[in-house]
Amino acid sequence: MGLKVEINFSNLPKNLIDTLRSSAQELGIDRMAIVGGVIRDSLIDLDVSENLQPPKDLDLVIEGSTIELAQMVQEKLGLTRVSISQENRAFQTIKMVVDGLFIDIARARAEKYSSPAENPKIEPTSIEEDLHRRDFTINAIALDLNTYKLIDLHGGLDALKKQELTFIHSHSVQEDPTRIIRGARYAARLNFHLSKESIHQIQATIKQWPWEWNPTHSEHLAPPALATRLRMELELLLENEPWEQALEFLQNWGGFLLLDKRLHKDQKWKKRIALALDLGLTPLTALIAGSSNPLSLSKRLQLAGKQQNLLKELDELQSFFKDIYFSKKYINWKPSDWCDAIENKNWHSNSIALAICLEIPLWESLLRWFNDWRMIKSPLSARDLIKKGWEPGPGLNEELKRLRRKKLNENN
Ligand code: CTP
Fold first, then answer.
1. What is the mean pLDDT of residues 244-262?
2. Which of 33, 296, 301, 308 has a CA between 20 and 30 Å from the CA of residue 139?
3. 242 dihedral zone (left: phi>0; alpha: psi -120 to 50; beta)
4. pTM metric for this prediction
């Protein structure tokens, strides 16, 4: 403890650190530290280059009132530079933005989990104790802003050297299973490995399943770390990280079991997600589509209503085309028959795309519909037909359909 390290603050907004320090002094806040990603990444970058990237966000931990500190910084730097975007009174955290940099200020806290995976109860504490509630040792290195010394109580520096991710304590996964996803994100992004004990902790905890809720219960009762927070971590993994590598780690560690048993064994997620991205679908919906009950899982994770609807239609599509496949009705179908079958149901085109990604029976024809057939229109418009003497009404509609069918079958 107490290693003095030069961290380059030149990429931070002008006067930020000085203003934080003088505000803390005026408010009687004795201790303040930067923690988490910025310190971790600066220490990694120190080894490779002097050209540090400006951080995306900054995590501060303080022994004192977060709202008072944020307000004083805003007063000193001015409203044009500083906005306070969110205050969480229960956790005593503040989100603010200074010159475009997102800053999270947290009051140093100890966490008590009344029930694992629920949100914890908190108690104010020292910065040193706060580090103990965190996920990985590399994320628990703090830079004390009074002394400019590093506080590294959990061997984070050593882990950085070994490029190793290690949970800080043995209940980490039980308390917050989203940390498994976080581990996969960091391992893929930083090219780190998860320590043997941590892999063992993941596997033993999932096997034991210490959470009151399990997938046979109603999806609405799932605690945050097995529901919404899990979704948020998965979205970050799929949208911001090298997702193929990260999901591979997650599957190898047994982490997919947090979601579903079938996904744990699924060998097709990589192809499915890559195709989904090509077809403009959200990758998480495509991942979930391979689970044993996609609609139930999407409800548990509280996916947007639109995405839930795609998964509901996927279920209908699957049974519809399975019937057609086994009855062999489709054998002599022309493109127009395919269009009738697909379009009469009014499914969303993204549901068809999802069914293609999942390679449901007859998916090749669905792909032809998605890429070509659905775009083919009647060569004459309603206006052209009226000019030729047709009366508006059902007869004209039928004629338009007939002309489209003819064109579909001619071209293909
Ligand atoms: N943290 C944690 N457990 C979680 C989420 C966050 O212990 N489930 C702690 C970690 O110490 C983490 C810090 O909160 O470093 C900030 O979290 P976050 O902003 O999500 O991560 P960063 O450290 O900023 O890393 P990055 O944004 O690069 O992923």
1. 98
2. 301
3. beta
4. 0.92
